[in-house]
From TrEMBL:
Domain of life: Bacteria
PROSITE patterns found in the cross-reference section: PROKAR_LIPOPROTEIN
Organism name: Streptomyces djakartensis
Keywords from the named record: Signal
Coiled coil: none
Record's signal peptide: 1-27
Entry keyword annotation includes Signal: yes
Name of this chain's protein: Sugar ABC transporter substrate-binding protein
Length: 451
């Protein structure tokens, strides 16, 4: 083996080791709940912040169950959740799991199945949940392991006022090349960036949109023999396109900006276009947003595939080691219910209701009126995403649109995201980032190749 390759493998090993150690450095979580309380670990997104505000008034007052929340940024909550569930310490009764964690956690016995609770809780109305979300939260054994708090696809938002000012038109179903051309033409209009995109490291941060670009450009992480393909022409073209688009027409310091930071930039009027999650549209159209009423929405841009949007859900799962499963289900049944959507609407307006999870929301005239600007595109994105089993061009041995559906991806994906973020920051070339990433990806799945 050449010395240069040995050096790259050393870098890869150091990156993976560093991530594992960082996951072990979190402070210990609080003690587990009791019959009168439960502990909930969750990503600290705006819908979860709203849930926390309304819990005492609506859930605790009705059930007498106190809820202790730990809300963390996405990268931090994933490290905490992986450690907690692997240990099965029972400190947290409920956690916000996703379509990525459910297959892995359920196979390892870390999540409690919810089928018996669903069967005995007719008011929950399981049939109202979007079938694609139910499928994504079902284990290999056919049992349900989580219930969606909200679901999302991805779409492109654009400033209609700036487009009119520059005499530009947004295609109804844009390609990425069209988006890049528009970003170049509109960049700098009224001080805005041509487009804003996630650049912050994290497999659930910059890699989520990047993976959709890789898929539609014809790339894949692995071939059917589990050989890494991160230096293939298609993968290189996709990542180079994304990095160049940010560096040439994106926001400053993009490598420091995840979905919340980019949302803040768009809401403040600093972006002409923005590709991200449909669930964030309610924040764009909220009172106080500088761009409320000025935004149009179109499907996720594509290239070689017809569809390119991701499918995602933050959902509630119960730790198998929890001693408070009945109370935990009561919380889930409320937090993922039609009743909770109505309570949020009464307090904060229909645009703040968790969306993308229940069919009934999209036949509700009040929601249709409140979310008139985007609910049709939101519904389409949540129900007509790329195929999670085959989202790109050609076969692949793993499922997932915005992620690679294998346990190793939590570590290897974050390591690769660090390399790409360094390219976005201008600290290394895309080719250098992908050469290092190729070694990380190849080493991560050696056991699948029988090595």
């Amino acid at each position: 083996m050449k010395r240069s390759r040995l050096a790259r493998l050393a870098v890869a090993a150091a990156a993976v080791t560093g991530l594992i150690l960082s996951g072990c450095a979190d402070a210990d979580p609080p003690p587990g709940g009791s019959n009168g309380s439960i502990n909930v670990l969750s990503v600290g997104n705006p819908p979860m912040q709203n849930l926390k505000k309304l819990t005492k008034k609506y859930f605790t007052a009705e059930t007498g169950i106190e809820v202790n929340y730990t809300l963390l940024p996405e990268n931090d909550v994933r490290r905490r959740m992986d450690r907690e569930f692997a240990r099965q310490g029972g400190h947290y009764d409920v956690a916000s799991v996703s379509a990525y964690e459910v297959p892995i956690y359920s196979e390892r016995g870390w999540l409690a199945p919810l089928d018996s609770y669903v069967k005995s809780d007719a008011d929950f109305d399981q049939g109202d949940i979007f079938p694609n979300l139910v499928e994504s939260l079902t284990g290999a054994d056919g049992r349900i392991y989580a219930q969606p708090f909200y679901g999302e696809g991805s779409f492109l938002a654009y400033r209609k006022d700036l487009f009119r000012k520059e005499g530009l038109s947004m295609p109804a179903n844009p390609t990425w090349e069209q988006v890049a051309s528009l970003a170049k033409e509109i960049d700098g209009t009224d001080g805005s960036s041509g487009i804003c995109l996630r650049g912050l490291p994290g497999w659930g941060q910059n890699l989520t949109p990047i993976n959709t670009v890789v898929n539609t450009f014809g790339g894949a992480w692995y071939d059917m023999e589990w050989n890494a393909r991160l230096t293939s022409p298609e993968f290189r073209k996709a990542v180079r396109f994304y990095v160049d688009l940010i560096r040439e027409h994106g926001q400053a310091d993009a490598h420091r900006m995840g979905f919340l930071e980019v949302l803040d930039a768009f809401v403040a009027g600093r972006c002409a276009m923005w590709y991200d999650a449909t669930v964030l549209a309610s924040s764009v159209e909220a009172d106080g947003s500088a761009v409320k009423g000025k935004v149009g929405y179109v499907p996720a841009p594509h290239d070689r595939t017809e569809k390119a949007g991701w499918l995602w859900t933050w959902a509630w799962g119960i730790q198998e080691a929890s001693e408070n499963k009945d109370a935990a289900w009561k919380f889930i049944s409320w937090a993922s219910s039609k009743e909770y959507q109505e309570q949020v609407a009464g307090e904060l307006g229909w645009t703040s209701a968790p969306a993308g999870n229940r069919k009934s929301l999209y036949t509700n005239p009040e929601y249709q009126q409140a979310a008139e600007a985007w609910y049709r595109q939101e519904y389409k994105a949540a129900t007509d995403s790329a195929d999670p089993r085959n989202p790109g061009v050609g076969p692949r041995p793993y499922p997932g649109i915005g992620f690679v559906g294998i346990p190793e991806f939590a570590v290897l994906g974050t390591a690769v995201s660090e390399q790409i973020a360094a390219a976005i920051a201008g600290r290394q070339s895309v080719d250098a980032a992908l050469e290092k990433s190729q070694d990380i990806a190849q080493a991560a799945v050696a056991k699948y190749r029988g090595e």
